[in-house]
Fold:
Amino acid sequence: MIVLVTGASGFLGRAVAAEAVAAGHDVRTLQRRPSGVDGVTDFLGSITDPDHVATAMEGVEGVIHLAAKVSLAGDPHAFHTVNVEGTQLVLAAAEAAGVSRFVQVSSPSVAHSGSALAGVGAEPASPEHARSEYARTKATAELLALASDSDRMHVVAIRPHLVWGPGDTQLVGRIVDRARRGRLPLLNGGTALIDTTYIDNAASGIVAALHRADTAHGKAYVLTNGEPRPVADILAGICLASGVQPPRWSIPAAVGRTAGSLVERVWAVRPGADEPPMTRFLAEQLSTAHWFDQRDIREALDWSPAVSIDEGLHRLSRHEQ
Amino acid sequence: MVTEAASRPPHDLPGLDPRFSRVTAVPGSGVDAGLTRDWHYLDNGDELARLGVPIAGTILAVHGNPTWSYYWRELLTQTLQAAEDGAAADDASAAAAPAWRVIAVDQLDMGFSERTGIHRPLAQRVADLTAFTEALSLDGPVISLGHDWGGVVSLGWAVDHAEQLTGVMLLNTAVHHETGKPIPAPLRLARARGMLAASTVRTPAFLETTLALTSEPLDPAVKDAYRAPYRTAARRGGIGGFVADIPVDSSHESFSELDRIATAVAQLDLPALMLWGPRDPIFSDYYLDDLIERLPHANVHRFEGAGHLVAEDVPYADFVLTWLGDNAASLASPGSDSAPASPSPREAIAAASATSDDSSFVPLWHNLDKRADDTATAVIDMSTRGNRGPQQVSWRQLSDRVNRIAAGLTAIGVRKGQRVSLLVPPGPTLTAVVYACLRIGAVIVVADAGLGVKGLTRAVRGSWPDFVIGEAPGLIAARTLGWPGVRISTAQLPKVSAATLGVSYSLRDLITLGANTPLPAEPRSGDDAAILFTSGSTGPAKGVVYRHGQLSALRDVLASHFEVTSDTGLVTGFAPFALLGPALGTRSVTPEMDVSAPRTLTARAVAAAVEASGASMVFLSPAAILNVVATAGDLTSNDRSELERVRSFLSTGAPIGSELLASVGTIMPNATAHSPYGMTECLLVTDITLDGIRAAAGGANTGVCVGKPIGENQLRISALDEHGAATGSPSTEPGVLGEIVVSAPHLKDHYDRLWLTDREAARETTVETDAVGSAAASDATDAPAAPAARWHRTGDVGHLDELGRLWVEGRLPHVIVTSTGPIAPVGAEQDVESVAAVRRAAVVGVGPHQLRQAVAVVETVSPTRRPGLASPELTAAVRESTTLPLVAVLAVPELPTDIRHNSKIDRSRLSVWAERLLAGGKPTAP
Structure:
């Protein structure tokens, strides 16, 4: 089938586009920069431009919509333009082009209210309870996408949780960078259990959602490796694989949260080039459990992760050396 | 007092279906003759009629003071619900299961019934209830149900309506109060001059105090519902009336009616159920004990921790429905002639105690009688407490002592079936007292200090002994903690101390008093003999009742399996076995140790005990073994040569690893090391030797191999389902993980006052007997037909292997129910303990049911200072050691264990702790 992948120049987008090619699809991509993925046709442009989107959408049967502004802090307006208005445009163009399968790539943070989550499913997206601009706009986008689910176009929302792997500049890059500079504290000893997703599993799960959209549509699914680990375990694994000393200092979670919200306010006034060292959102992510029930998604998509966390860390270590 | 018409409760009371509320006019009787009284009551009869289900009969429920019919709301709702479920499920089939109609009255002057303004003593209240049921033309089978003083009123109705009564159910109540004994203090206070009206009527104090008698505070809305009919002093007259009607002594106007009811209750030969909340300042275990004496066949469950308002503390309606189901046939048909084939409840218990195999029954004291003239040593106590040396007692002395104490106990009124709590440490005195009690048929209550003060108090109060025999520390505890029973001191106490401790007799007094008292007839094999207590590592300690025949069977299996003869000699500090020496006809010795802390036993103390007795058999608990091995370096060459004479060594209490067992072998080089598996309910289930453990190692089986069943014992496995529940039909199929189910001649008879626990332990255990066992029985042509095997669900999980060996893999509540099925923890724990840096490990679950994730919690060889995540290196090593996916590895300074064995890890507590920590909670000690 002819498949359009938006945002294919990002870490996850590239992997998804490559996976779709490997599955035998005729893959197009839409983003501002070349995707660098072998075997795809790049359409360069912005998802906020109706003409760019309409051109890329011509003759497309399936869409995997990844393009989004991903960040822990920043200008609220920019998040809205890309994540909400952009998604509206892509949905409208897909409907107009007669697309039959649509995978909205979302985030578990759309339903995360800040309390510990242990073994929960995909709760409904809730912009009003979102803990960051990113989460708020992604929640709105997911609601819009699922509202477009119909007999003509089957929409599935997939929420991959904390995707990492070789070549990742978002999560792995920042963790390693901060650990190297000694700016990565553990909160409450880093004991909170979190789910993460190795990149190959995220890509195969998202493509599986495209394949199973006819039966799995109308719902959101959280996608993870299904191997919860304490935060400190994951951070240590990533640091060690990257040849960096893991974080050894811990601060009480409450202190981390307060510090996070203070820094966020200062950053809003005097924005710098880098992300703030600790946001309230990040503090919550690093100090409360969030791991998920994976039975539903595995059954609905007839899919399971092929790469374990240990194998993933092994591959990361090989990549870094 | 004020009069007021009956009314209806508000429509929005939590849990009360307003459809059940009724008001009816009842022609009065007694003081009300010629008058009509309006009663408010709850009735689910119309709703049941609407469903069209057949009605088995009526439950007539009577509330106490100061509650009202609201107390029974859940039973009305649930019986209706059960009928609705049944009607829905049985749509296709011809007949739905019969349902019980529930009628719960508001007694006059109480709840929303009429305020009569007339004093209503007990006899009037019983007559009132009869007038009510006559007005309703209540016919067909009736089960009475009552709580508090409503229990007395309901029983008064019950004994007056034998023609339709089919059963009685009681929650915290009383029918008798011993003359001369003061009534409970809170009631004395409420009744004090000037207090009665103030506490019960003018203020809601009595009402508010009662509403606070639950283990967890009542929901405020529920509390308000209880207050609803008692808002004003004018509406509370009945509360004061009830308190004034408590018959404090024989001069009280209601005394004779209470006496009449109490006497008649003792004649009831119908199914009876008692659900009891022991945390009740008024209706304490004292009254429960009295009721059990009157209705010895009753199904009784005492909910440890529950209070006076037991119906608010436990799901009593579920239990009532269970009981109704169990007794459906006899409850539905009044009159004993309807089912002539089956014995009445009283006949059934009489038959159970008069078992037919008395001909082959050899009582425990048999050897004491046989060796009554033998001057050889029977018992040695190595303890040097109180500056005295080791004590030796000959068979002749012991036999004489037992007979004299038995006569003394008889002289002061100890009778067959009465309970005697023993607060005496192991040694010759305990041995003599135990056999004296057994000889006269008194039931010994053996609660050891390993339960801790709280556990011990619960155990002693729960078993409600009639007598307590103890040393000073035990008696001080009995006095301070208010334990029941006539107190007997082992030592002669100065008069002042005796008075302070409330001690009535010393053992010496008994011997004097019993000088001319002949011994009573010997108890039979079916009579109760002893109550032992579980360790309480999985909830409150449970009393386990053994009959004489079962204790004799324990002696016999021990003798035959371990080849104990009169020459063997036993060294043991482990309570149940320490007492069996005289029964086995062999010398027994208690080594010097603090018996409440087995880990104080040293290697030299064991050697000294062996030297003093010439014993060739040693029993030690795992905690004691640890210390004996640790102190082996102190042994002299003489000690070592003494220990060479030991032929068998038993680790009793909990399974231990082969390494520890092997290290005992270096201390006792000629001993065969055994590690039998058992529990308080069945002390010997299987046995395995060190060689057997070594032979079993290295295979594909997970868990601890505990060997094959001993003697006539039989094993089955009830497979776990995907919810981790043991629902599988018990089988011998190898390789199936499930609950271990055991049958043995020496299996306990039942749990004490824990009807639901008994029920669960025997749930779905009607299984076929081993072909081998039945063939052996039929070979012996002159042997009587073997009675049906009794089975017990152990609460342990494990599997059988192809060779019929049992592998124990943990406790049922510790099974981790993951998304791929249930996992027992012990196999993975053994894997983890193979990591060099790990001393001890527990594998527990975190997360929701069926999604639980396994976590390893380890004690490291070089101790961790603070609890938290293990280091990345240790985490990796632990993960590699096992195929079970572990989401986290936590290190702690010390794993929580039970006091008695210091070996059973409290995995439930660890699981809660790990879950909190792994949710991001602050790192605290488990």
Remarks:
- Chain A has twelve helices and 15 strands.
- Residues 116 and 288 of chain A are 5 Å apart (CA to CA).
